[in-house]
Structure formats: C-alpha cells, structure tokens
Amino acid sequence: MILIVGAGLAGLSTAYHLTGVPYRLYERESEVGGLCRSYRKDGFTFDYTGHLLHFRQPPIKALVEQLLADKLQKHQRKSFIYSHHTYTEYPFQVNIHGLPPAVVRECLMGFITTLLQPVSASDPKDLCFKQWILQNLGEGMAKHFMVPFNEKLWKVSLEELTSDWVSWLVPKPELNDVINGALGIKDKAFGYNPSFLYPASGGISVLPESFLPGITDITTNIELLEVDTKRRRARFHNRCNGTTMTEHYESLVSTIPVPELVRRCLDLPTHLKEAADGLRWVSVYNLNMAVAREQVSDKHWLYFPEPEFPFYRVGFPMNFSPSLGQPGCSSMYVEISHRPTEHQSIDQLTAQARAGLERAGILQPNDGLVVSDLKDLHYAYVYFDRHRARAIPAILSELERRGIYSIGRYGRWEHTSMEDAIGQGKLLAERLRSEQDQALSA
252 near 41, Cβ under 8 Å? Predict the structure, then answer.
C-alpha cells in the first residue's frame, strides 16, 4: 500500500498516475488543492494569491489541457512595476524606459559595468543573492528594484540568501535588450511567463478538482499525526469525529512542509530533526479586497519595490476573468510578507493596504470597500540559505531510505511552479509503479 499525505497538486498528480497500484490519499483540509485553491466571498471568487499557469514541459502542458479541456483562456501578461511615481513593464531589467533619466543612466551604467568586469572564478552557486544581483545586473538595478523589492518580500538581508535558485526566474539579459528597454523599444517578450493560462471561470481550484475523476481513494479531513519509519506505520487523526487510525505502508509520499514531516517522524536521528528545525521561510498575508468601482486597474498584477507601500505585489483577479467578481466592481489580492512569528489583525492590514493603494492612485478615497478578507499563508516562500543547502539533501536522502518520498514545493523545500508539482507527482508515481512491477516479477 502506498500512502499519500496531502492533496495539493503534487499529491493529486501522484495518485492520478498510480494506475493499477493500491494507494490511499489523505488530506487534512475539507477540500483538495493545498494553496492551489479558490474560495467565494460575497459574490467574489478569490484564489489563495495569484496562481497562473505557464509551461516549460510539453507533457505536463498536454496533461493539464486534457484535464481542463476548453476551460482555459490564454492571456498576454500585463505586469508592471510601480516606482518613482510611474509604471514600467515587468521585468525591470529590460524595461527601464520612463523612469527618471538619472535612474535610467544609473541602471544602464551599472549593467555595462558588469559586462566589463572579469568573470569570477568562483562557482556562481557560492554567491549570496545580493552578490548575484550586483554581478549580473549591476548597482543601479540593484538599488532601484532588485534589492528593495526582494528585501521587502523575504524580510531578511539578501546576504543571508544563496543564489542557487534564481537563474531560471531572473535570467541575465543581453546588453542589446537592456538598451532597447531603456529606449522604449519592444521587440520581444521576456521572463518565464510572457503569456499565461487561467480558467475562464471558477478560479484556479478547477485545476486540482480536475484530477478527482481519475482518483479512486481519497479522504479529506484526515491529518497525519506521527510516523514510525522503522515499522512503516503512520497514525492519522480524523478531524470530523476525533478518532485516530493507524495505517501500514510500503511507501509513503508526503507533500507537507519538510519541518512538519520530520517533526512527525518519531525515530529519525536527532541531527536530522535539528536540521529540519533550522529551515526558514517567510509567511504571506493574502488580503483579498473588492471595491464598488469598475476597472481600478487594467493590469494583471503589479510589483511595489518602494518602502512606502506595505505590499510587494497586488493583483486584479477580474482582469483574469470577469466571472470572478460582481458587475460594477473590482477585486484585488494584496500580498504582504511577514515573519512566521509576527502577526497583525485584518483591520490593521486593511488600513495599511488601503492607504498604500490610494498613494499609488489605484484606489480613491471615496471608493466603497465591499470585501476585505484575510488568508494568512504560514508557509509561503522557503529560504534558500546555506543551511538549506546542507540540510535538505541529507533529510530527503534519509527519508527515502526509509520509504518516504517528500515532494512538491514544501516537500522538497524549493521554489517550484504548479507545473513542477504536477510533474514531480507524475515522475514519482511512474517510479513507484515500476518498482512494484519489478517486485511482482522477481
């Protein structure tokens, strides 16, 4: 028997692809999806922050398009950065036209300096995130966007973070592209998501729900309590009736955050438990709002690097799909990161967000607020630091030696997309099926 813990995209994909192999999928919440979920509030549909589909893997793209058939719409990204009282297109490094001339010059000269410097002999993976920014983009771009934005998001000095995660998210541009961006010449799209797919209705929850017809054994409201890894037994708590049960497994697939899983594994070595306790992350307040005025912005989402704005990003769901809101209104998701141990009330956050949105000219003082609802995402973005680089390989290796496979964004403690989570589940299911076939034929 294969036990799967967590019905986010990685867990759902694992179960979906375990055709012909006995498994049970347990989810602690009352619905599937993990953070890839939507909910309705006063006639508005909100996701748990922005979830947009973009693909680099043709097999996963084909699978999602098959699951969702004609439910997806394609959008050309309208994403901007608000700084120096103006909007510039995302990504910043190739769209500095429109900023004050002194800022444009600083960014250009800084980038050119990076091209004139001798190539560092050290491994790029040994650079801290701040060094990577300075070495690849220069002092101007670091000063005017990359450092303030990322320090607002991560809530730590960028010298504490490594750079081994950043290359696919923030590629170094060519000089020609930076100059074109400074002159306002647009001849190609940049970034990993110049276009994206999003459901025409229902929010992103239609994606995890689309796996359910292909899944035979799933139970919600069941939480993992503890794992005896030597005896391969897992104990669960039924959140509906309060009972507990014990399951024996041959393999256990976990998609819950690594610190939570290790804490539940009773017999792991002390040094691995301490390593898991040392993993760090940042939490995010996902403040979902709606006002009684149409089209407060024509953008999909906006980035805010400057400190006078408490949020680092604001998105507009009704610009992905008008069906997510009410006629005559606009909806927004406002993202404010915070340390996991720090907390503010919804009233404080709403007041801060509203004041910032008015400063940016998105909201007007007389706009009537019709929804303000808060989701505190405790595990939002994991820290890539030197401790993670040592701890995660050791933890995952020992878990796998004991028949436990930890996958997904928080299960592998990494920065991955929805596509990656689905792909990890598919690959693991194929591996487990193959191993079972080999065992049966031996």
Answer: no
